[in-house]
Amino acid sequence: MTQADYVIREPWEHISDQRRASTFGMWVFLASEVLFFGGLFMCFTYLRVLHPAAFAEASSHTNIWYGTINTGLLLTSSFTMVMAARLADLELRRLMALCLVATVALGLAFLVVKGFEYREDFDRHLVPGRDFAIPVAAAQLFFSLYWAITGLHAIHLTIGIVAVSRLAFLVERRELALPSPEFEITALYWHIVDIVWIFLYPLLYLGGRS
Questions:
Q1: How far apart are the C-alpha atoms of 140 and 56, rounded to whole Å?
Q2: I need a labelling partner for 163 at 20 to 30 A (CA). Which of 16, 78, 109, 191 fits?
Q3: From CA 141, how far away is CA 112, in angstroms rounded?
Q4: Is the pLDDT of residue 107 over 90?
Q5: Model pTM?
């Protein structure tokens, strides 16, 4: 039995067919995620058009340093994830495992930085409510969306970290053959999480600083 035969699952007879089907299924799932986040982005854009001054004022209160650091972390993690998928195709197991571990570490670093940012937001009373710090009513709309979207993004990133950690664990134990399509579809999921943040960064952090 070849290594390709080892990873084939029913009803597929060829690894290439299984890979195409798995990739297509992930793209369908990612399309639903795009629609989900796209609706939130449209809501944000609509409210920003209605309240441009309030949204600019609220955006200026976000911590651009935390946002920029996290953008760099996620962009770097996309590179390490691409390298892991490519090294899996080349059957370079050790280097691929290192790239997976690096991807997980960068994702965890993002969550740690985001945790510091959230703590600062609490300390500065940037949580919508009675004690909200910005004396502009519509600014609470901005931070309501800020907390909702970044929280959902953090949940998606956590799922990605678990998925990549699982791959690294299975690779280290040699329980997952390198031709498996799991590497490619996990990489696709990771990239969509990164792409969402690329849109979030200018919306949340740069709007009040142009």
A1: 12
A2: 16
A3: 25
A4: yes
A5: 0.85
